[in-house]
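Example record for the data management plan.
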Amino acid sequence: MSAVFHPKDDLVLSASLDQTIRVWDISGLRKKHATPQAMQFEDIHRGNPSGPGTNPDMFGNTDVVVKYVLEGHDRGVNWASFHPSLPLIVSGSDDRQIKLWRYNETRAWEVDTLRGHYNNVSTVIFHPRQELVLSASEDKTISVWDMNKRTRLNTFRQEHDRFWTLCAHPELNLFAAGHDNGFTVFKLERERPAQSMYQNQLFYIKDKIVRLHDFSTSNDIPLLSIKKGAAGGTVPRTLSYNPAEHSVLICSAADGGTYELYTLPKDMTGDARESSGDIKKGAGNAAVFVGRNRFAVLNKQTQQIVIKDLANQPTKSFKTPGLVNDIFHGGSKNLILVTPTSVILFDTELRTVVGELNVAGVRYAVWSPDQSMVALFSKNGNVQELMLGLMRLVPALVIASKQLEQLCLIHETIRIKSGAWDEIGIFVYSTQNHIKYVLPQGDVGIIRTVEQPIYLTKVKGKSLYCLDRDGKIRVIMIDPSEYRFKLALVRRNYDEVLHIIRTSNLVGQSIIAYLQKKGYPEVALHFVKETKTRFELALQCGNLEVAEEMAKVLEREECWNMLGQEALRQGNQKVLERALQRVKNYDRLSFLYLITGNTDNLKKMQKIAELRGDMMSRYHNSLYLGDIDEQVRLLKEVGQCEGFEMNARLNKTVAPLAYLAAKTHGLEEEAAEILQAAGLVHEPKIPGNGELLKPPAPILKQPELNWPQLTITRGFFEGGYVATEQVGASIAAPVPLADAALDDVGDWDNDDDLDLDTGVVPTKGVKAFAGAGVPSEEINGGEGWEDDELDLPDPAGGATGHVGSSPIEAYTPPTAGPSPGDSWVRNSQLAADHIAAGSFETAMQLLNRQAGIVNFGPLKPQFMSIFQSAKAYLSCTPSVLPLSIALLRAQEGNSGRGTLPFQIMTVSNVIGKLQEAYTATAGGKFSQALDLFISIIHSLLFTVALKRSEAEEIQQLLVIAREYILGLKLELSRRDSATEPKRVIELAAYFTHCQLQPLHLQLVLSSAMTAAYKYRNFDTACQFARRLLEMGPSQAMGAKARKLLAACENNQTDEISLDYNQHNPFVVCGKSHTPIYRGSPVTTCSFCSASYKPEYKGQLCAICGVGAIGISGTGLKSINEGGR
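Corresponding structural encoding:
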């Protein structure tokens, strides 16, 4: 059935259905195929065909001989295996037994038998590295046996598949088992070595020996053997070190959870000592030191924490504040308690909760060296994340302060294996394939990839110390430049930033995108060489000099337009002028000269418009200049002096524009000429309300100066790089302008059909005007287009000057301060405060964790109402956004304003709405009342309590709303015309068991009594009548009940059998509207606690419409007790 080679010796082991196991010697076969050499004496007497001792088999082959025959199984043997290092054999048979055999050079014998399988044993093997035996059987189980104690440790069952084969990976801690429908790959023990860091020393366990690794000297010393303890039989789970007493606590899963206390030897000789004396141990699922001579032990079964001294004697004990799965060190006298949905910082002396953080499934906690921050991460993905109203589990990492105030939350897609803190406050962690880092502010990045999972222990400079799966110390070299650079930016350590920029090779789109996102485009500018990206970054950081140089290289119209917009925003009219010249935007240029009072350039613009033949531009420029002569002349040219005769015949008072302009502005002679040319004698009627179209003359002409700007010195990085720019070529240095750079700035006119004199010599910077065809005598005469008149500005610092030599001043927008919304999110655990801050996503996550809310559609009105009411808006000028003013609420014990937003949903408001719902219920307006109660129960999610008494009232209001919603749904279903008589009576009966106000309960009892009597269920009707009379109803209602009792006195029977027993307490299922009697399984809504049958688990609650059935939450918070 099987045959395997020995891992070292020349032996083969076979198992057969003849109920025997045979060990074969194949040394002769190996020697037969080896290089010929001299015959040895033992070979002659063992297997030489021509010598004595020859023992050929039936085929005459003597190369392979049977060395041992092992008999002991009662049925056929399916599998047999060698031990990898010891002279042991294990076998499995159809007799359902596993046998251990030992052999030596002369014989083999049976050692022991392992029993426990209920069907044929298919495969059995030794664990390659531990003293364990693994067996697979047709009883659909895989069993793990202790080879020394001969006991079964664990059993893994497959419900529908029989196991047939089993094998171990030659190197990794992996096993594979084949079954009827495939195969399964699994692990047996933890690969993460138990370890504890203290300063530069690492204490860890390898091969059941506590070892010490000193990072300063690289010495690795074995200290203590723990083979005799309980942890020697299983892989230790955790190790906690006490530096004061030089002792360790070791926890393992042996016997359901065990801890052991060892005192380490002080003299480190290099050989591991055996543990002397009685080992101090006890039962416990976790144990950590909480003081110099105290440690805490958690018992999950009793949910009790016991504080013990170093003599293993209990000093005090207390119950946990909730369901606790694990404990970690939390600082002096503090513990971190891990619950299924949160972690709690607990003071063991005062026995009080110091802080709480809502993060689920925490597996490990790693403190920073200065104990100021802690990293909490879940290895198996136990953090709930809300997505499209559904929940999924994802691995997560939380960085928190020492008071468990959340600093950042990072979601990962694969497991987080381990982590360690850098000496500067960066947390470095490892996953299956990567080593990553996270800043306390939440920035994440990848340092490098790894081939195999590693377990980080220490990060120092460029060295990362870790343990591999075999427990070996490894040193991995990393480049910390990226995260040091980001941390320096966050901490505003600009000297460090400049040093890293100069000494490292930080490049790539990721670092550029990060700098842009964080508001440091001027830093990103130093990393970029690509022209388009440099142009965009220069605009973003307001560096017009670099932006203009890049625009000249790109020479695209959209780039010049963008540059002009940025120059206009900063008030730099000279750059704006050059940008408009490049794109030949004449109209905007004219308007720029108008608002800057540059009348000289306006006159030149008017001349250019004339040369271009643009009549509209000529008219605009003449309007800007107030040149009425030019206006009249232009209007005459375009035909605005004709049409008087037609206007006269039509008796119109409107005259052509040329005459109106001349007459209005007092040009009588010009007006008379226009009339004469039109052949008219009488002057047309002119409107009397005309005004002169002449702009005011500029008082102060300073066309060479920019508009007033906010004088702020250039940013640190731009200033810090001035020296670099002067010394060498920095990639951020602006390109100096040459004379030819402005050659085609003013290619204003390309018309070749103008018959004008072109004999002009273009001067520097004004080729556009000279090439426009202006006569040379006008240019050189001082009244035309001379260079000193136009004064087109040279680039900053002169055409040949270096930008770095100019004063370092530029506009830098002021940095915005923290918004009130950020403070609200950071300081509150209430979803309403997060909504008021506009952080809807975190609000939904809080509601999901606290109350299990999964359907947020019905809550949209409350979200919008809270968000809109948290701020007041003050309108300013039409071109400016309104000012938002945060409205704050007073807190308990503080008569003034607090730091949290005002909330419109208060307990008094909800009580007012409750009175409306009561009135509608009493009036029989059931649909209206149902809508009001649903609105109330939704509002309670966001109702903020200012004191403890109000928080208790909110819980009472939740119960009231839930009961009324259930009852009203029962009543509406009962009144449906399609409801059968039996169901009508049952629904009426269930309604009477809802917790209602006495007046409403009387109405319900009267209605149920009437319904039961109507369908001749007299006994049930009498029950309702008696309950009604016990409540002291009104006179009319009481008379009705007594009359019914008299009528049914002699016939107290029911014609319809009901699913109703008033004597057996029950609750009504919110989905099926059927009773769930005491003792029956029941599940509840995560928010309103409405009761349901188990088959509805996971569905949406029918009462509140927002919670999930059977999902547990941490509990809805209605009063703020501190920050997140």
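Summary line stored alongside the record: The first helix runs from residue 27 to 32.
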